[in-house]
Amino acid sequence: MKNKTRDSIVVGFALFSMFFGAGNLIFPPALGNMLGDKYLLGIVGFVLTGVGLPLLAILACSRGNGTFEGITNKIGVKFTLILTTVLFFAIGPLLAIPRTAATTFEISILPFFPNWSPIIVMAIYFIINLFFVLRRSSIIDTIGKFLTPALIIILAIVIVKGVISPIGEIVSTDATNVLSTSLLEGYQTMDALAALLFAGVITSSIIDKGYKGKEINSVLLKASVIAVIGLAFVYGGLTYIGAHTVNLVDANISNTSLLVFIARRILGTFGVGLIGAAIGLACLTTSIGLLTAGSTFFEKVTNGKLSYKFNAIAISIMSYIIACQGVDKIVKLSVPILNVLYPVAITIIIVTMFNKILTNIIAIRLAVYTSLVFGLLFALLGSALNFLPLASVGFGWVIPTLIALVIGCFIKPKKAE
Fold first, then answer.
1. Is 405 helix (H, G, I), strand (E, B) or coil?
2. Is the pLDDT of residue 352 over 90?
3. Residue 325 carries which DSSP code?
4. Which of 85, 146, 156, 374 maximizes the CB count within 10 A of its CB?
5. Is 36 helix (H, G, I), strand (E, B) or coil?
6. How far is CA 67 from the centre of its chain?
7. What does the alpha-carbon distance between residue 386 and residue 177 come to, in Å, rounded to a whole number?
8. Helices 327-353 and 308-323 sit at what angle, rounded to 10 degrees?
9. Structural domain boundaries of the chain?
């Protein structure tokens, strides 16, 4: 028997867990430290792209058949295949998986064993990953169900105590372009990209509960409110605490070191160990899930020519090499990649959300390809294109994409399939 309120809560927690990555926790405190007294606007920007976009991605996919392919195949089957492959590389061996390993080392190991080699520790980390991935064990999924609530409780204690008893003063950092900087920082969660790929899981779970048609979106909307509140609390709270650290830490402190510093100041050495263990294990469950999904995808897309086992090993080796560079270098590597992928992802999400108005397939394709081209141009040429509107704040692709969309509406009007 359907119970919309109960089901919305269950799906809401599922959405929260999907977007709540332990690796994401290093960004809000760093943002707060960067912005100081302007932290409120920073929270708004980070939550918009770090939380709002992923939820819009889920809602957009629900307008197709619940999957990314359902909303992009009309743009082109080959386009869908190429973009999906690139997205799996981004949330897999290029960025997300290596970041889980590097974050685990820098937060869970380094504060207690400063002389341990990251090369050896992360090799062990990926061996453990492969142990579970190759066996396709469900044990790690069971552990994960307990880890997320445990990590949330620890973080809630840190945030509440940090708000009640601030660790420092909030001062001005003379930060500029606060909103645009925060919006771009939200890209680093990579949750909008992951949401496009894994939206089908959430939609299928709602359908399995017996919902159809408009009921699916109704449950999704209520669930989204729950997820937004939870994520905004965590990200907003950590950004607020980070804003109190401006005069307490060196300006060049790494993202992971800042999180460790905050945990130590609020909970002491025991707290650092507690949060380190929780984040380390949560990162492990995340990387195992991503590694499994990536290995399965590349086996499917190559019709078995690349086996699941081969993919798992290859992705692990690639991830290990990148992970050894450290979190900060991975973040720097991710900036140009995400600045190419996010414009395309955002454009696809927006045109899908307005699919009742935007029915001209030519306009849709022109907008999506324009966002891709300008994303690539800005990644390659950077500040050389700052003469374009919004380019200096990282959104130079927006106006050209809108112009392309409008022009496309006047070219052979044709209903999107």
1. helix
2. yes
3. T
4. 374
5. strand
6. 18
7. 14
8. 120
9. 4-324
**Nearest Cα residue to 260 out of 248, 246, 275:** 275
Can you tell me the mean pLDDT for 156-163?
93
Q: How far apart, in Å, do the first and last CA atoms of the chain sit?
A: 35
Tokens of 102: 């590097």
Q: What is the pLDDT of residue 416?
A: 44
Task: Tell me the H-state helices in 302-326.
Answer: 308-323
> How confident is the model at residue 417, as a pLDDT?
46
**Cα 73 to Cα 64, 97, 313, distances in angstroms:** 10, 27, 30
pLDDT above 70 as % of the chain? 96
Q: Give the dihedral of Cα atoms 14, 16, 17, 20; nearest 10 deg.
A: 160
pLDDT level of residue 108 (50, 70, 90 thresholds): very high
Half-sphere exposure for 140 (CA within 13 Å, toward CB): 22
Residue type, 21: G
User: How many alpha carbons lie under 13 Å from residue 363 in its C-beta half-sphere?
Assistant: 23
Length reported for the chain: 417
| In the block, residue with structure tokens 């160990």 | 273
Using CA of residue 60, residue 63, residue 67, residue 71, what is the dihedral sign?
Answer: negative
Sign of CA dihedral 260, 261, 267, 272: positive
Q: CA-CA distances (angstroms) from residue 20 to 23, 37, 148?
A: 9, 26, 8
The CATH number assigned to the domain with range 4-324 reads 1.20.1740.10
d(CA 375, CA 340): 4
Task: State the average pLDDT for the chain.
Answer: 91
pLDDT at 142: 64
CA distances from 254 to 30, 31, 150, 156, 250 (A): 8, 12, 25, 23, 9
Tokens of 297: 């995808």
Please state the φ and ψ torsions of residue 248, each to the nearest 5 degrees.
Answer: -105, -20
- Give the SS3 label for residue 415: strand
Residue 171 has pLDDT above 70, yes or no: yes
